[in-house]
Amino acid sequence: MRVRDVMSSPVVCVPPDMPLKEVADLLVRHAISAVPVVDGGELVGIVSEADLVPLELAPDPRAHLIPPAHLPGHLPKVAGQAMTREVVALPEEADAAPSVGQLPPGVSAVMYRGRAAKQLVRRARLHPWTELDRCPHENLRDPERVHIDPEGNVHLCQGISLGNVFERSLREIVRAYDPEAHPIAGPLVSGGPAGLVRRYRVAHRRRYADACHLCDETRRALRRRFPEILRPNRMYGLP
Ligand code: SF4
After folding, report:
1. Whether pTM exceeds 0.70
2. Does the first or last residue of the chain, that is N or C, have fewer Cβ atoms within 10 Å of its Cβ?
């Protein structure tokens, strides 16, 4: 499959001075996950949902009598301030495999998880759920990194919380992590997202875009059972 078989055409572009609210509306209206930023006919960057979500999650300094010290002086307001400048462009003839389906580690351009997944999977090649038997992007057995969100949740992968740094130190949280015993990471380590489905007998479809797509949907189904781990709500698109 070539890039031209999966690409959107004509391309929806925005100018650098377009307000981010309008950019976000455009993404939703056209059911796309990113827009090129064009200035005077020249490609100068790209704004994707990945650029907008951190802004959405950032605390608003106006809500604090004393603004938190870690916040930047001002948040980006227009496309040119939020865009990613290093854009990788592919010719129409390029192989589209690195952009669809389940991909080997280090090759993926797309992970089908979070709110963007619903839009992206429409164009993806789907795979039997039983084949999605490993986590392709995170070393869950021996993580080399964690993510900490503004509320203090320590994420193994987005939406899988190991604890909260406002309740315990990061050192304690990391030391207490036992991958095999962890209710979510354990099944993922031994059998990938398909293993998570099997462990808790979660209802599922027959085919998914990739491992993250199955993992994300399975975790959503398990949220009520593991509210202290599968959090915060925002990671699952909930208020
Ligand atoms: S969403 Fe699941 S399968 Fe994808 S990287 Fe995270 S833990 Fe691994």
Report:
1. no
2. C
